[in-house]
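Renewal narrative, Specific Aim 1. Our central claim is that a sequence can be written position by position from structural information alone. The example that follows is taken directly from our test logs and has not been curated for this report. It begins with the C-alpha cells describing the chain, in the order in which they were read.
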C-alpha cells in the first residue's frame, strides 16, 4: 500500500512539476525564496501591533518564534527519520522532471516551507480574525502557493507538501492557543 501511494505521489509530482514553463520559472523561484515574503511578515507585524499594542505584539512575536523553531525542528526530525530523497535526487526522474531550484537538499519528507507557511497563516489568521475576518483565507492561499512552488521547482513531492500543510495547520493552531494563555498571563494585567 505504501509503495502504491508513493507511486501515485511520484506521478502527481511529475504532472504538477511539468505544468511549469520557462517564462514562469523566475516567478516561482522568487515565490519559493524565504526572503521574498519579508514585507508580508512586516505588514503582519504591523497589523498585530495595531491590534494588540507593543506588549501584546511581543508576546505574539515570542510565540511565533517558538512556533517556527518547533515547526522547523519537527520537519528536520521527519526528514532525517524517514530519509525520503527529494525528487531532484532521484536518478529515475532526471529526464522526466523540471528542476529549476538553485539547489537540492538531501531529504524532503516533509516540506519545511509548507509547514512554516501554513503554521504562520493559521497562527496570524486566527490572531487577527476579529479585525480582519478574510485575512486567514488570503494567508491560506499564500501558504498553498508557497507549497506548490516547492513542487514547481522540483524539490518536493505533493505528499511532502500536504503533510507539511497538515502539521503546519496543527502547529499554528497549538501556538495560537499558547499565545492566548500568554496574553492572559502577561498582557491582561
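The sequence written for that structure reads:
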Amino acid at each position: 500500500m505504501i509503495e502504491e501511494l508513493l507511486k501515485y505521489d511520484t506521478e502527481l509530482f511529475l504532472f504538477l512539476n511539468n505544468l511549469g514553463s520557462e517564462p514562469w520559472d523566475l516567478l516561482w523561484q522568487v515565490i519559493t525564496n524565504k526572503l521574498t515574503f519579508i514585507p508580508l511578515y512586516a505588514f503582519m507585524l504591523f497589523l498585530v501591533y495595531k491590534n494588540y499594542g507593543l506588549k501584546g505584539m511581543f508576546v505574539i512575536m515570542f510565540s511565533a518564534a517558538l512556533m517556527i523553531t518547533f515547526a522547523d525542528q519537527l520537519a528536520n526530525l521527519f526528514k532525517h527519520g524517514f530519509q525520503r530523497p527529494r525528487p531532484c535526487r532521484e536518478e529515475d526522474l532526471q529526464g522526466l522532471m523540471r528542476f529549476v531550484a538553485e539547489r537540492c537538499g538531501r531529504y524532503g519528507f516533509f516540506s519545511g516551507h509548507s509547514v512554516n507557511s501554513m503554521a504562520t497563516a493559521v497562527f496570524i489568521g486566527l490572531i487577527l480574525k476579529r479585525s480582519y475576518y478574510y485575512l486567514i483565507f488570503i494567508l491560506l492561499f499564500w501558504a498553498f502557493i508557497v507549497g506548490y512552488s516547492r513542487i514547481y521547482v522540483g524539490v518536493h513531492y505533493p505528499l511532502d507538501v500536504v503533510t507539511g500543510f497538515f502539521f503546519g495547520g496543527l502547529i499554528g493552531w497549538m501556538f495560537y492557543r499558547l499565545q492566548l494563555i500568554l496574553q492572559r498571563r502577561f498582557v491582561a494585567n
